[in-house]
Specification:
alpha+beta; Aminopeptidase; 5-stranded antiparallel β-sheet; 3-stranded antiparallel β-sheet; 8 strands
Length: about 170
Amino acid sequence: MKKIIETERIILRELEESDLEHLAEIFADPDVMCYIGRGGVLTYEHAKKSIENWIKYYEKFGFGNWATIEKESGKLIGLCGLSWLEDKSDVEVSYLFAKEAWGKGYATETAGAINRYAFVSAGLKRIVALVYPQNTPSIHVIEKLGMKYECDRVFFGDKLLRVYSLENNAT
């Protein structure tokens, strides 16, 4: 297990094949997935391919979306991390949590730690977050982390998302 980030209640580590069952369960929940990517559930096969792809991504870029483990239970409760936008213009911070992890402050805790990692460990100068305009809980998290609204932009062919950004102002 390669641990990347540890917070008070969460461990972010590289995905492993053994995460497949839990990740597939999360991907199969329509409430969880309605504001992720194109919106909508993903198959078991997609979860399997996702793990394989993220493992390759870590090797290529040194970061990616990581298994999000609740320390208390030891259970995989999400997928959070950093990834390049399709056009390679920016690196996105993202978070996806199973429904049972909602409302516990995990998104703010985890995304804040990822933002620090992006600037300190990965040496990034800027990160962005993409959010569906109707996803008010996620907008609240993004704004709480100091990210600023930039514009609305089309992603995934036809999804109008809000773009928020944060610059590394450390000199």
